Each structure stands twice: as structure tokens, then as C-alpha cells.
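Let us work through a complete example step by step.
Step 1: write down the sequence.
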Amino acid sequence: MPNSPVSNGPAPNSPVPPAPVIRIDTPGSFARSVFHERHPVLLRQVLDALPYGPQQRADLAELLARSTGGGPLHPPVGDDPDAARWQEWGAGLWGRSWDEAPFLWAESYFYRQLLDATGYFRPGPWQGVDPFAPFKTAELAGPSVDGELAALDHPGATRPEALLSAALWGNRADLSFRLTAEDGSAAPDLVADDSAALWSALERGRGGRVGLIADNAGRELLPDLVLIDHLLTSGLAGHAALYVKPHPYFVSDATTADTLATLTRLRTAPGRAAAATGERLRRAVADGTLTIRTHPFFCAPLPFDAMPADLRDDLAGATLTILKGDLNHRRLVGDRHWPPTTPFAPLTSYFPTPVATLRTLKSDVAVGLAPATLTRLDATATRWRTDGRHALIQFRA
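Step 2: predict the structure and record it as C-alpha cells.
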């Protein structure tokens, strides 16, 4: 197959030689299993969760058939608000087979077309209805969340290291991943840890602006918000910017509506510490100390090295930008088959601020690992790149 015309990183001026783009046409690959195993389960759950009508059900079935059967890629049509952007983002791919698209691009477009099939973008009774809202709501209301929030009342629970760890491992709370993940009990493993450098950077820039590009809503966003509260109350950040998706994306990705629901969950929690945190964050949003921001590019099928100038300007000037989750990590370093010992810093040199990533490994991309760590992981003969039991904290000044 020829290489796709769509870029998937690294930065154009990166000193690291490019690696092959991850694709969905490789038999037995994780990327292919997402389309052929995870997506059918997801669509069944979406149809079970909301009473979509016959046309919506037919459109979802057609989407699944095209995306798993090598059907042609067609651009959005009509007056959809993102149609022009997708025409540009898919230049060189329209008319070609789904199997010819890079994994990052194809997965992004699948979720965009899922929204289209359910009527999310079109005027009518289903416009603006989040097809994943039932899953997000159920998770946030679950009894396990009460226990997690009550833990904030325990001595030591608000130590900076504990809060960072909670935000890191909260990334396991990914509804899309849990659709097909095996229920294993193996102990989690931190395979790269730049947390000391991360805290040092925050201390050096004390009182500056810190950005956090969110990943999932619900049980992941809760510890993210608690971490933001700590940065503000400790003075490590004078202002925080929380970046969320402009519309539903990848099942559990956080939007502004999800953020407000999560703040309410904090404020109404039975534990005193959680409720106080929720109140402080609500006041911070009201007085502008914490701003919730978004941009269409957060739902783009492209790596962050292709970000537009206005988003780059928005991010610039921060003491640190923290990227949460697997998808943001893939977009940060490029969704490619990098050798896992490829250094993290050169791949992210284009990013407009110092950057840290908190990620649970749930896809094939891996960079910045020590050779000894890689040897240990490979010796386990497990799917360590995709099983969600390994995580990393990486930082570039």
C-alpha cells in the first residue's frame, strides 16, 4: 500500500527519522482489532442506550459495513458545521478505501461519522444529543465514585504525588477501552517516570499559567480537576486552562457539558474534601482563575504538529501544558511505529510550551523507554503496549 498523504507526525523539522504510520489494514494488528472487534460492540451499546429510529440504525449499520469492509471514504456533505474542515483534513484520502487511511485518521473519522449517523449535527430532534451521554452519566453516578471521592478525606490523600498518580491512573477509566479489554488483575506498572522534572518545572514557574488538555470525562476528569485545584491552591499555578473537546468524541472524551457535570458531582459529594474542592473550582471558573477552553482541532484526525496558528497562540506562554491520555499522546508524538527507545524530547520539540504527558498505554505507540525497561516488557510476552496495565509520565522542558 502507498503511504497516506495525511501527516501523522513527527514535526517537520524533527531530527528523528520518521517511522511507518500505524494503519488499520494489517491483519492481526491492534489497530485492525479496534475496527473489527471494538467498534461493533460499541455500536450495539449505542443502539441499546438510546431509542434511535430506523434511519439512524440503518446509517450506523452502513457506517460499520463501510469502515470494516474497505468501503470508500466520502467527505461530509451539506451544512454540517465541520464539513469544510473535514474536506481539508481528508485531502488526498476522499474516494480511497477506509483500509488505506492511517489509524489515527480513520478512528477519528469513524467517531465523526457516528455522530452524523445519529443526527447530532443536523437540525431536528436529535441535534446536539450526545450518543455517549448514557455511559458517561452512569459512570459518574456509580457508587464507586463515592468511595473514590471519600478517599480525599483520608490523611495523605492530597499529597502532590498522590494527586498526580490519581490523575495518571484515572486514564484507565476509558469507556471505549473497557468495551473489549480483558479483566486482568496484574499490578499496574509505571514504565517511565519524569514526575520529579514535572514538579520542578512547576516550581520554577510558580504562579504562571498551566494548561491541561483533558481526555476522558467521568472518573478520569474527577482526579484531573482535583489536581488542578491543588495547582491553584498551592500557588504552583496562578491560572489554569482546561482544554476539552468541542463535541462528543471517542466515547468518553470530555466536553464542556461533561466538565460542568463533573464539577456538580464534586460539589455534591458526601465527603467534605471533595465538596470543598468542587466549591473552590466553581468559584475559580466564575472568577476566571480556571478557564474552560476548546477548539475544533481537538477533534481533528491529525497530530498536534499540524495545529493551527490560533491554537498554538492560545497554548503559548503557559508554564506547562499537561496532556492526558492515550489519544493525546498519540497526537503529540505521532501515531507511528516508533522504536520504543526513541527519545521523547525531539518528537515534541515543536510544541509551543514545556509539555508533560500522563498516559496509560492503550495503543501501539511507545517512545522514551529505557532499553532495560523495554527488555523487561518484551520478556513478559504480553500485549504491554495495549493492555492498559502500564503507564508513563513524560516531560520535555
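Step 3: interpret the result. The first helix runs from residue 30 to 49.
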